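pinned: reference chain
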Amino acid sequence: MILVTLAEYITELMSFDADKVIVGRENGNQKIFSNDYIVVDTLSVLPQAHGREYEYDTEIETRRTSFQGTFTIEFYGPNSETNAYKFTNIQSAQAGKDLEKSKNITVYRPSSLNNLKQQLGNKYFDRIEIEILVQYNQSFEIDTLRIEEIPVEYTQE
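pinned: its structure tokens
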């Protein structure tokens, strides 16, 4: 779910074609990456904090967990470097912060920007990778009946 939200964030932030922002690496044909594409994937996610809240009238318990994850954004195609730098600059602008608020996520500045084409020694497929930290919350509602009264029986022998 967070990958979809992050992909939507990137699409809207960069005014990029939604069909060219791919979540994960499933079913990718290497030929398509000679065009401008963006791939979003997860490296690791750690829970940071937990909380819960109970609504007595509706008998619903809401459980929340705050997560912080490291994600990769890979930019492919002839404009990969331009798109990577564009993302890095726009992400920290006011438009990026407003979009974060609407998506209920916090996107931290990129921790690294790597030219994978150069590192891997490829002659084809321009590829720039950015690593970012994202903080987000997940909540779930659970029907939980409250206990009105507890019958207690005392026995004496």
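why pinned: The first strand starts at residue 21 and ends at 23. Residues 2-14 form the longest helix (13 residues).
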